[in-house]
Amino acid sequence: MDVEQPTQQTSSEIYQPPDIPANPQYPFYSQTVSLYEPIYPIGWSQPVTNSEYQHLQHLKNKYVPSLRGVLMNYKNVALGENPGRKGAAASDDDPTTLKSVNEFAVGFGWITAEVDLFVPSRGAWMEGSINLQTEGHIGVVCFGQFNASIEARRLPSAWKWVSNEDPEAYGMEETASVITADDHGVVRQIHSTGFWVDGDGKKVKGKIRFRIRNFDVGVSGETSYLSLEGTMLDREAEKALVKEEAATAALRKGTKGARKIQRRRAPEFAMTRFMDEAEQPAEAQPAEAEAATA
């Protein structure tokens, strides 16, 4: 039996699950890390500056596997022969020691820095603005930087899809949608076939909060990827849906002659691609996604 889930809204009209805490904690963290890296001789005259240039600068705003998150920012870089700041050089004028290994033409050292990270995890809270609406999903831009999607079955049960051809759509402003046009993250604006309305019959738009239900990361050359899928169901409703999906998958698997079940992929608009500035096409502006918000 389907039980209608109430969707909590604050005075600022943010759609969110009913079990969200008063002060949700988002997956942003600050910590001190130490990385063991080779420092190339060309940078030995300015070891701290060049250790930053060789190993940190190009990682900013990218998913870094060794840090298990997106490096948002870093500061207070130091370089030494041991992890941590004790005995490490905090500036190019401070003496430091690098380790020579066999016949490698580099010196190895520990780069220590304070870093700000975005670390996605299942169950973590997210907040963003709706920028895409289709009958099967909604797309969200989180914190102005990360793309995410929420499939229809994980939206509040009180929400309803309204086609543009439906008389109910008369008098409401049109909704624009966006799709990923190519492998470089360039998006094109297209006409939507409809929009979602909440339990009060109001068109869904603006800010939204949800949990991460699944995420995927990858690295290809200098480009890294992050895909986020969310849910607006409360924990019990999400747990029940996962159990139902598992039972359905098991039933299909056990059916003679059934096609092999493939893992459902997240839609393209749920993916964020992190590229070097030199790789980004001139026409790929972040504002394009924001402009598609209804």
TrEMBL record:
- GO cellular component: a single term: RNA polymerase I complex
Tell me the Gene Ontology biological-process terms attached to this UniProt entry: DNA-templated transcription initiation; transcription elongation by RNA polymerase I
Region annotation (Disordered) ranges: 1-21
The primary site where this protein sits is nucleus
Look up keyword Transcription and say if it applies: yes
Q: Could you name the domain of life of the organism this protein comes from?
A: Eukaryota
Ranges for domain RPA43 OB: 120-233
Q: Which UniProt keywords apply?
A: DNA-directed RNA polymerase, Nucleus, Transcription
Location comes to: Nucleus
List all Polar residues biased stretches. 1-14
A Pfam family recorded for this sequence: RPA43_OB
Q: Which InterPro entries match?
A: RNA_pol_Rpb7-like_N_sf, RPA43_OB, Rpb7-like
Relate the protein's function as given in its record.
DNA-dependent RNA polymerase which catalyzes the transcription of DNA into RNA using the four ribonucleoside triphosphates as substrates.
Name of this protein: DNA-directed RNA polymerase subunit
Provide the species name.
Trichoderma harzianum CBS 226.95
